[in-house]
Write a structure and sequence with these properties.
This protein is an alpha+beta fold. Helix content is 31%, strand content 19%. The protein has 3 helices and 5 strands; from the N terminus they run αβββαββα. The structure holds adenosine monophosphate.
């Protein structure tokens, strides 16, 4: 049974896509910690991020960097925080969260639920700044 993220990559489940290449996909977290909270995944489904090969984790990180650069241009913030949890969805992913304070990266905080139109707007603004 493919993960929910593999089904997103396959287009079977909708997502607010911000960037993609042949091996990676980036989309908005549906319950963001802050507006612009993005998930970056390898298309190849692996649960635990440290089970990726050296080259896979390196390439995933470089792709995440490109997304973070676009994110910071689109959403004014002090820095883009990067975190890996993976306790909920068994498909390796990097969280990128625009931060003003360290509390913005506190995963115990109540999540936001922006309207679909707002999510679309945010995804498009990041996608517009993304350079491959
Ligand atoms: P974790 O596995 O603990 O890193 O958390 C998984 C993250 O994926 C959570 O922040 C969820 O809000 C997010 N998430 C779960 N399902 C979806 C989905 N269909 N689209 C976007 N984000 C999702």
């Amino acid at each position: 049974m493919p993960s929910i993220f593999s089904r997103i990559v396959a287009g079977e489940i909708p997502s607010y896509k911000v960037a993609e290449d042949d091996r990676h996909y980036a989309f908005l977290d549906i319950n963001p910690l802050a507006e612009g909270h993005v998930l970056v995944i390898p298309k190849r489904e692996v649960d635990y991020i440290f089970d990726l090969s050296d080259s896979e984790i390196a390439d995933l990180t470089v792709f995440a960097k490109k997304v973070a650069l676009a994110l910071r241009e689109a959403i004014p913030c002090r820095k883009v925080g990067m975190a890996v949890l993976g306790l909920e969805v068994p498909h390796a992913h990097i969280h990128l969260v625009p931060m003003q304070t360290e509390g913005d990266l506190d995963f115990r905080r109540p999540k936001l639920s922006p309207a679909p139109e707002r999510m679309q707007q945010i995804a498009q603004s990041i996608a517009d700044k993304f350079r491959s």
